[in-house]
Amino acid sequence: MTVRRGMAAEVQALGRLKVGAMNKTEAAYAAHLNLRLMAGEVAWYKFEGVKLRLADNTFYSPDFAVMLANGQMEMHEVKGFWQDDAKVKIKVAADIYPFRFIAIKAKTKGNGGGWSIEDFTGEQSVSKSQTNEE
Asked: What is the CATH number of the domain that holds 117?
């Protein structure tokens, strides 16, 4: 087996994408946001566009910063599943910053498709569903 120089620099942890690269679920959600942008519900959005300081040497970068048509800012976290540290970070960020923090999860086609939404703003998290028809 021949190993080329520089190959080690290109190897990443399994399941990790390069910074700024969307996974399939994030790309599908970006398409959903683009539809909302064209419908006039969203004024602007940016993938990995915000980095929030939670504590010394602790930061949280939501997947999408979203400005609604009414000017309200939201931070959207797109998840296939939750890791403990990610859920803690979004809860801490929701307590510190004046934005609405929501988690987005793709629903299976068997469950009607669309997106499941969990709101972390306020004292309790609230879950609701949004289908593609909305």
From this structure: 3.90.1570.10
94: exposed, middle or buried (Cβ count in 10 Å: 0-12, 13-18, 19+): buried
Q: Which residues contact 18 (CB under 8 A, 6 or more apart)?
A: 12
Q: Which pair of tokens denotes residue 94?
A: 């929701």
Structure confidence at residue 18 as a pLDDT band (50, 70, 90) = confident
Q: Go through the chain and tell me how many residues it has.
A: 134
Q: Compute the 3-state secondary structure of the chain and give helix, strand, coil in percent, each to the nearest 5.
A: 25, 30, 45
Residue carrying the six token digits 């498709």 = 113
What is the pTM assigned to this prediction? 0.78
Mean pLDDT over residues 73-77, rounded? 97
Query: What does the alpha-carbon distance between residue 26 and residue 17 come to, in Å, rounded to a whole number?
Result: 12
Residue 14 included in any domain: no
CB-based contacts of 58, cutoff 8 Å, min separation 6 = 89
Q: What DSSP line would sit under 59-87, residue for residue?
A: EE--SEEEEETTS-EEEEEE-SS--HHHH
| Average pLDDT value for residue range 53-77 | 96
- What is the maximal distance between C-alpha atoms in the chain? 59
